[in-house]
């Protein structure tokens, strides 16, 4: 493990640094409970949560208490919590200026950003990892996985979703991230091999020897041609799947082969909404990990929606979460009359029933955002040692346009802190917002395809953030002041501790690190350190 030196030109892995990092890894794993999964992020300068803002409701009270992962306790990201996003936003800025605190605002990406690859658009990206979310360098190569789509197939950037495949990139571990480009290896799976006709996001784990498990969302679209032409609308099917295969590396690079695909989970319609209940249901983005508090068990978090027919949910007082007697609290009947009940995002949990990770059982959601937001995409569990015990951070991403009526928030990273996988999660910074592109929250917004006139031109500059060891955050470029993306963003760094976060503007150049910087913090080869 290594900290991230400043400035960017120094960000290079050298043999001496590798030896030092290996020693640090050993000492860290011996110094904390068996183990701590991730390199701790640096602490923020601020030591306290933001103070209450007059005229806004107080946030809900959260204990961070841990519960058994198999229990039926579900933490709630409440409207009272999410209202803090606007409470912490400046209502007096000129139209189109960023209204959010610099502590949660990503620095501006330049319009002349480099193209990562001339043949494919690149978006959701993740690293090759181990069971503890360490980022693995395999036989001297760093390896990342991305959703990709053909730039020259005749459809546009916004049609990429139903043409998505999982591709991979590699480069030498000692490459200079400021100058050395990632090598594109092509699609991970052979054409027609995966379950479904479209591959959406997931995670990839190195297993025993040279085996890898690629967990992914198997999505099946029945109207791809119509959608590419600007029409369509038939609801897709979705399942969570995995593929067990092999990774190979030599002096020329990295290849994969031998994949066997297994369907793992489909939404049950009870805890997790299915297609029959909502054609726009969310069921995707599997992320697996082992929990040091429950040795021998492998868990998965994923994006879901609360089970039940769309539009039949009724907002409850606990979804609003206002403290008794709060003069700024909303009226429950008025919230329901607004249609806020259409937004029912949750973060799901499942547990593996065998060591092969081919059989899984649903557990109740660990977080719900009923009547707050409709999407909690690409969830991650990030465990770091704080004050001698492991603290669990649940990170997820969400959009402006998926917020419920009466709510407002930016595209970006949302985080929640607790004492276990299943906790009464405390929203980071009291609001949940940890990192977002510059946005004027006083103005309405549409989407990256249709930005609101006079809004900040970088409100959709980056999305699909992936939090890495040490607080590094990777994302892809979507829309920078009207210039569409499809390449990886500059990596930024957030410092966080005790549920408080702050963008590190000393990292890189004014807070922007190298484009596509996903450094490894463990090096393995052959059988590696795996059982």
UniProtKB/TrEMBL annotation:
SUPFAM superfamilies the record matches: Arabinanase/levansucrase/invertase (SSF75005)
Cofactor(s) listed in the protein's UniProt record: Ca(2+)
Sites where the protein binds substrate: 123, 201, 284-285, 375-377
Molecular-function GO terms, alphabetical: levansucrase activity; metal ion binding
Catalytic site: 124 (nucleophile), 377 (proton donor/acceptor)
Keywords: Calcium, Metal-binding, Signal
Chain segments carrying region Disordered: 37-72, 436-457
Highest taxon listed in the record's lineage: Bacteria
Binding site for Ca(2+): 374
Polar residues biased stretches: 60-72
A Pfam family of this chain: Glyco_hydro_68
Site feature Transition state stabilizer, where: 285
Signal peptide positions on this chain: 1-37
Biological processes annotated in GO: carbohydrate utilization
Family note: Belongs to the glycosyl hydrolase 68 family.
Protein name: Levansucrase
């Amino acid at each position: 493990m290594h900290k991230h030196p400043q400035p960017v030109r120094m960000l290079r892995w050298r043999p001496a640094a590798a030896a030092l990092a290996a020693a640090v890894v050993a000492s860290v794993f011996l110094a904390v409970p068996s183990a701590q999964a991730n390199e701790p992020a640096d602490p923020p300068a601020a030591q306290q949560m933001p103070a209450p803002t007059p005229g806004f409701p107080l946030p809900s009270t959260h204990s961070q208490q841990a519960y058994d992962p198999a229990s039926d306790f579900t933490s709630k990201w409440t409207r009272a919590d999410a209202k803090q996003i606007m409470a912490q936003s400046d209502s007096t800025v000129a139209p189109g200026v960023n209204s959010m605190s610099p502590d949660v605002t990503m620095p501006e990406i330049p319009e002349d950003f480099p193209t990562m690859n001339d043949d494919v658009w690149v978006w959701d990206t993740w690293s090759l990892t181990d069971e503890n979310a360490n980022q693995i360098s395999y036989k001297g190569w760093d390896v990342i996985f991305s959703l990709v789509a053909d730039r020259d197939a005749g459809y546009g950037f916004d049609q990429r979703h139903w043409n998505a495949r999982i591709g991979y990139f590699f480069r030498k571990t000692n490459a200079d991230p400021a100058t050395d480009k990632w090598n594109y290896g092509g699609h991970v799976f052979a054409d027609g091999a995966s379950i479904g006709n479209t591959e959406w996001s997931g995670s990839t784990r190195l297993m025993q020897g040279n085996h890898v498990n690629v967990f992914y969302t198997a999505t099946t679209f029945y109207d791809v041609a119509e959608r590419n032409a600007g029409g369509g609308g038939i609801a897709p099917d979705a399942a969570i799947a995995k593929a067990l295969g092999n990774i190979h590396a030599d002096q020329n690079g990295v290849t994969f082969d031998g994949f066997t695909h297994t369907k793992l989970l489909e939404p049950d319609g009870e805890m997790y909404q299915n297609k029959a209940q909502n054609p726009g249901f969310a069921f995707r983005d599997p992320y697996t990990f082992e929990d040091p508090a429950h040795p021998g068990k492998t868990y998965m978090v994923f994006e879901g929606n609360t089970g039940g027919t769309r539009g039949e949910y009724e907002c409850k007082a606990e979804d609003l979460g206002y403290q008794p007697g709060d003069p700024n609290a909303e009226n429950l009947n008025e919230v329901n009359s607004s249609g806020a009940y259409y937004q029912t995002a949750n973060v799901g949990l499942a547990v593996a029933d065998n060591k092969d990770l081919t059989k899984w059982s649903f557990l109740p959601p660990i977080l719900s955002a009923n009547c707050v937001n409709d999407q909690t995409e690409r969830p991650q569990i990030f465990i770091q040692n704080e004050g001698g015990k492991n603290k669990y951070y649940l990170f997820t991403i969400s959009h402006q346009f998926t917020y419920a009526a009466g709510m407002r928030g930016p595209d970006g990273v949302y985080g929640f802190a607790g004492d276990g996988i299943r906790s009464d999660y405390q929203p980071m910074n009291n609001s949940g917002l940890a990192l977002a592109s510059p946005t004027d929250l006083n103005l309405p917004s549409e989407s990256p395809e249709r930005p609101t006139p006079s809004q900040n031109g970088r409100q959709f500059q980056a999305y699909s953030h992936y939090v890495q060891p040490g607080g590094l955050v990777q994302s892809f470029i979507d829309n920078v002041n009207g210039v569409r993306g499809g390449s990886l963003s500059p990596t930024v760094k957030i410092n966080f501790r005790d549920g408080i976060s702050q963008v590190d503007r000393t990292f890189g150049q004014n807070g922007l690190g190298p484009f596509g910087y996903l450094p490894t913090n463990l090096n393995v080869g052959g059988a590696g350190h795996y059982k």
